[in-house]
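WARN retry 2 of 3 for item q-0093 after timeout on previous attempt; input resubmitted unchanged.
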Amino acid sequence: MSLIIERAKERMPHNRERYQRLLKDYGERPVTETPLTVENLLRGNRGVPASLTDTSFVHPKDGLQFLGKTPCQDMVLKLASVPEQAFWYMLLDDFPSDAELHDFQRDLQARSQLPDYAWAVLDALPADMHPMSQLQVVTNALEGEAQFRPRYQQGMPRQEHWLWMLEDGLDLIARLHQVAAAVYRRSFLQAARLAPDPALDWAAQFVQMLGMDDAHGLLTAYMRQYVITHADHEAANASANTAAIINSTLATMASTLAGAFQALSGPLHGMANQDALGFVENAQAHFGRLPTPEEAEAYLHDFVAAGGIVPGFGHGQLRDLDARFVVLTAFLEQTPEMAQQHDVIACMRIFAEIGPGALKQFPKIANPNPNIDFGSGAVLYGLGLRQRTFYTVLFSISRMWGVVAQAVRARAELRPLVRPLSYTLDMVETAAVEGPQALRPYFAV
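OK item q-0093 returned
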C-alpha cells in the first residue's frame, strides 16, 4: 500500500469526527452577521457562504491560502516545489517527507498506464476539435476504469467511499497530463504522443511529453508553480463548485473531473488569460512598439471609458493584488532575461504596473489590481507555448489536484448530497417588498 493511502487512512477519521461534531454541537448556530440580500441572490450568489472546503481559502486582501493558513507565496516559493507536495498538503494537512514524496511519485508512476480504449477514443476525435472538448471526452471515457462504482454496487460502507474516490483520483492524476500532452501534439504539431519519463516529477513529465525545447528548464520551472497556483481556489468558483455538487451525488471521480472541466471551458471561467494576452497584443499593435507607462495609462483609461472590461484585472473574491500574481512576478524577477527577450511579457508588466492607478479613477471598479490571469498567458506565450486554445487545458489539469483533494475529504467527512434552497423571482420580489416573513407560507409544513 502506498504511503499516501496509509497516511489518509490515519487522517480521514479525524476529519470525519470533526465534521460530525460541528454538525451535532453547533448545527443551528449562525455563521454570518448579515442577512441574504436580493443583490446576493440575483448576482450569482456573490458574497453568500454556500460552499464548504478544507483545502484553501481566498482572503479578500491576502489572497489564496492553502488550508486557510499557508499563503500561496509560501507554498510555491518556500515550502513546496512540485504539485505532488501541494496535493499531499491539501489532502493530509502536512507536508511529505522526502521518503513520502518519493513514494507518492512512484505510486503515480505505477498508475500511469492508460487503457488502450482511451487512446482509441482520442484518436477517433477530429484533431481540430477544441482541445478542451478532447480532454473532456477522454476523461469521460476513463470513467470505465473507476473502482468506486463496482464497490458501491457491492454495498461498501460509507466510511470507505473516500478511499476509492482517492484511488480513482490518483489514477486520473497519473494519466490526464498524458492525455493533455497528447492532445497538444496531435492538434498543433500533428505528431505522435510521447510516453512519460518515469524519472521526472509530474510537471516535468508534462513538459517532456509536450516535446518542447526547454533546454534551460524555464518552462518546467514555471509549470511547477503554475499547477500549484491554479490547483485550488476554495470551493465556490465555478469548476470547484460544479465538481463538489457532482461528487456529492457519488458520481465517479472521472465524472466529477469531466464536470469541472466543462465548467472551465466556459469563457467566463477558463479563458481570462487568453483574453488578457489578446488585450496586451492589441495594445502593442496599436502603438507598433512597447508603450511608455504614460501611453499605457492613457490607452487603458480610454479603453475602460469606452465601455471595455480589462481582462485579468479584479476578482470576484479578492479586493487587493492577487497573491498568485505576486508569485508570477517573482518568477519573472528571477529570470529577467526572459522578460527582456519577449515584448509581450514586457508589455504585460507595463500595464500591470500602471493599471491599479489608472483604474482607481473609475469608482465602479471594486478591485483595480491584476490577478494571475493577466500575466499567465503572456508568460506561457513568452516561454514558447503559444497555442492559446490550449491554455484552458493547462488550467484544467492543474485544478484537477484541488478537485480530487476536496472530493476525497468531503466523502471522508460523510457530507450529504448538495441541495440548497431555490427561490422564484416572485418570491424574491415578495420578500424584498414585504419582508422575509412574507415567505413563511411557502415553507409551512
